[in-house]
Fold:
Amino acid sequence: MYNSFHLSDYLGRCRETIDTALVDLFDQVDQNRRIVAAMRYAVMGNGKRLRPILCFAAAEAVNGSSGDAILPAIALELIHTYSLIHDDLPAMDNDSLRRGNPTCHIAFDEATAILAGDALLTLAFEIITDPAFSAPAPEMRLGAVRIIAQAAGYQGMVEGQMRDILAEGRRLSIDALKSSHALKTGALIRAAVETGATLAGGSPHQVKQLRQYADDIGLAFQVTDDILNVEGDPDRMGKAVGTDADRQKNTYPALLGLDASKTLANTLVSHALSSLDIFDHSADPLRAIATYIIERKR
Amino acid sequence: MYNSFHLSDYLGRCRETIDTALVDLFDQVDQNRRIVAAMRYAVMGNGKRLRPILCFAAAEAVNGSSGDAILPAIALELIHTYSLIHDDLPAMDNDSLRRGNPTCHIAFDEATAILAGDALLTLAFEIITDPAFSAPAPEMRLGAVRIIAQAAGYQGMVEGQMRDILAEGRRLSIDALKSSHALKTGALIRAAVETGATLAGGSPHQVKQLRQYADDIGLAFQVTDDILNVEGDPDRMGKAVGTDADRQKNTYPALLGLDASKTLANTLVSHALSSLDIFDHSADPLRAIATYIIERKR
Structure:
C-alpha cells in the first residue's frame, strides 16, 4: 500500500547497504596512505546517497533487488563524490564547506583533492569489474560502464559543469538553465535508474518510463536545491545559504521567482509520478522519493 | 629479421593508426564546445604515443594485429593525456609548457583544464564499450576496463603522483624512487602491453613475460626522462631542461649520478630484451622500442 510505505525506514536501509559497501571498499586498503584518507574522507561525509538509493529503487521497481544494483550504486556514489570534490576546488566554485565539513581541498590540500577526485572516478569503473561479485554477467556490466561513462563525461556531467562556469556573470534563458542542469545533475540521476533497472532485468519499455521519471526528478532536485539556497536552514543543510544570490548565479528563483520555482518543482514531480503508472507497488519507493525530493530540508 | 626491422617506419605507422582513431573520435562531436576544444587540444599535441604503440606491438608479439588492440590503445592515450593535464596544474607541478605548446590550463584556464582531464579519463572507459566495434567480446573488454582502471587509479598512477608530490623537498632512497615510478609511469605502460596481448589472445605465460618487459622498459623510460632533463636539448624536447635540479626533485641522476643512471637504463633494457626470448620475430617491434626508449632525444 502506498500510504503504508515508510520512506524514512527505506532510505535508512538503503543508506546502510551503500555505506556498508563503501566502508568494506576502503577497509580493504591501507588507511595510512594520504590518497586513501582523502578519498575516504570525501566519500564517508554525510551524503544523502540519492544516486545509490535511486539505483536500488529502480531495480526493485522492475521486481529485482538492491543486490542486482550494488555495483553501479557504489560506482555512482564514487563518481558523484569525485564531482563534488572537483566542483569545490578554488579554480571552480571555491567552496570551503560541504555536507557540514571542510571540503577536501581544505581538509587536505588542492593537489590531494584533485588526485582524490581522479582516483574516485577511476575506482568507479574498477568496481564494476570486481570479480568478487559473481553477477551480473560481463555484457551487463559493460553496459553499465557505458551508461555511467556517458552520463559522467563530456556529453553529460562534465559538460554541465563547464556550462555552469561559462554562465557565470551571464543571464541564461530558462531553457538554457534547464539543459545545463539536465547535464550537470540530471545525467547521473538518469544513469542511476537506468543501470539499476537494466541490471535487474527491466524491459525496454520499463527502462524508458524510468528514464522519464529520472529526468523529471533530476530537474526537480536542482530546482529544490536552488530554493533551499534562498530559504533553507544553514544548520540543517550543513552549508551556507544565500551564496547563489551573492554570486549572481543563474538559478530558478533568480529567473522565475520563488513561487514559480516551487510550482515548477511540483509540476515536475507530478509528471515523474505519472511515468510510474505502468508499475505496481514495486515502484512505491520511487514514488515516495519523488515527493521527498521537493519536501526535503537539506 | 631483427636487423631489417625499421623502427621509424613502424612508429610512424602506429602513430598514424592512433592519430586517425583520435581524430575520428573528436570529429564526431561539436568542435565549438569549450570542453571539446580543450580535450582535443591536449590529445592532439605532439605526443610520442608510446602507450598505444606498446599496446599494438604487444598484440603483434602474440601474433595478433593492431586492430585487436585499438580500443585499449585509444583509452590509454586518453588516460595518459588526462594525467599530463592534471600533473601540469598550478596545484601540482605548475608547468606552462608541454610537448612544445602551452599546457592546457595556460591555453584555456584552470577550471577548463581540470574538467578536460576529467572528461578524457571518463571517455577512456566509454571508448572501450563502443558498440561500433564488433570485437572484442564483452568479457574481454571488461577485463581491459579492469586492467586500465587498476593501473590508472589509487593503486597505480594516481598513487605515484601523490608520492611524487609528498616527496618534494625530501630525499628518497633509490628503492622508494623506483617504486614511485613503477606506479606513476610504469603501471600504465604495463597496462598497455597487458591489454594489447590479452585482447589479441596471448597465453598467460606470454602475458607474464610481456609484463616483465613492460616493468623494465617503464623504469628505463623514467630514468631516461630524468637524464634528458639534465642533458637534453630543450628545442628537441619542446620543454625546459634543468627543471628537476632547480626544484631539487628526486631523480636518478641526483641520487645515483649521471653515469650510473645510464648504466641502470642499459641494464633494464637488457633485462627487458631477455624477457622477450620466448617470442620469435613477432616481438621485433617491442625489441626495437626497448632500445629506442633509452636512445631517444625527446
User: Anything to note?
Assistant: Chain B touches chain A through 47 residues (CB under 8 Å).
